[in-house]
Amino acid sequence: MTRQEKGLLAAVVVLTISVLVLGGLIGYKGLQPDRDNGETDADLKDEGSHAAAIIGDDTISEQEWAEELKKRYGKSMLLEMLNRKAIALEAKSQGIRVTQEEIQERLEKQMEGYVSEEAYYEEMQNQFGLSRDDLTLEAMYRISLEKIATLGIHIDDQQVDSYIREHPDEYSSRKQMDLAWIMVDKQDEAEEILDRLDKGEDFAKLARSYSTDQFSRDNGGSLGWTDEDDPFLPVTVMETARSLNAGESAGPLQVPDGYAIVYVQGIRTEDSEPRQEIRQEVRRELALQQAGPLEELEKNLRSKYGAQITADFPSS
């Protein structure tokens, strides 16, 4: 597994809980029967329920909304809230603390493969409704959970060395390319831009003027340094880029969002991570493998601290 694939896996773990709660909310009201004839918005106000949404002459009250959310997601959300309380209590009991440096390091791993930090946060907000604070709190929770899970587990240097030897592709030096691209909607637009590049026009200026990719356009189309097997960029783009020398461009390449012209600004080879960081990551992974399922730990800690769900949930 590459370093970027690790970043993708970490992002999936972080988002699992939030997707459970947020992912299925759109459209649920449309499956419910209309309210009884004669019921008006005024009646809703009389019942102490304010409108959460309006469509045509119909209103969805906050009470209806809350009841539907409770029915569909209430128990799962309560369990997650109890998990967080239990982990906080156990961390305090064990004297475990999570530093800002650890949180930032975790978030940076999750950002790998994105054009920029801003692009990552924008994607998380747009796709999952998760703010920076949400992601920070989730990172802190996962780190606390992992620290509790691995208490008392010792991984010696010999185990770390053995793991690194057995996974050379994961920790060997890798080729990176400083890439830029120009994205357009039509093939003839891309061919026209290629002609202008052949005549000596500046790639960055053309990207700022014509590229449809909002994340890279203002930076002259720059995608930054990317691994040669970057899983976040289209396969056709990466295959073409690997065949180019520094300073060369190629296209048009058909991609999901239109047509791309790719430009290799530079090439370098470097170790996947500083040696000490590699060893720390391997030590953590091996300890987690010995620790067992984190879901089981959450369940055990809820029991240890006497968690109970006393609320009644409507049948679905």
User: What can be said about the biggest beta sheet?
Assistant: 4 strands, antiparallel
- Taken in chain order, the helices and strands follow as HHEEHHHHHHEHHHEHEEHH
Low-confidence segments, given as residue ranges, are 1-37, 44-48
Q: Largest sheet, order of strands side by side?
A: 4-3-6-5
Question: Beta-strand percentage?
Answer: 5-15%
Mean pLDDT: 80
Q: Please report the number of helical segments.
A: 14
Radius of gyration: 25 Å
Number of strands: 6
The number of distinct structural domains comes to 2
Question: Which geometry do the CA atoms define?
Answer: flat
Q: Classify the secondary structure makeup into a structural class.
A: alpha+beta
Molecular structure report:
This protein is α+β, with helices and mostly antiparallel strands and 316 residues long. It folds into two domains: 3-155 and 275-304, no CATH class; 174-270, Chitinase A, domain 3 (Roll). The chain is built from 14 helices and six strands. The protein has helices at 3-22, 41-46, 62-94, 100-111, 117-128, 132-149, 157-166, 168-171, 187-198, 203-210, 214-217, 235-242, 275-291, 294-304, and strands at 51-55, 58-61, 174-184, 222-227, 249-255, 258-270. A hairpin with a 2-residue loop joins strand 5 and strand 6. Helix 3 packs across helix 6, helix 3 (62-94) crosses helix 14 (294-304) and helix 4 (100-111) packs across helix 6 (132-149). The protein is flat and about 75 Å long. The two termini are 41 Å apart. Residues 1-37 and 44-48 have low confidence and may be disordered. Its EC number is 5.2.1.8. Pfam families: Rotamase. InterPro entries: PPIase_dom_sf, PPIase_PpiC, PPIase_PpiC_CS, PrsA_foldase, Trigger_fact/SurA_dom_sf.
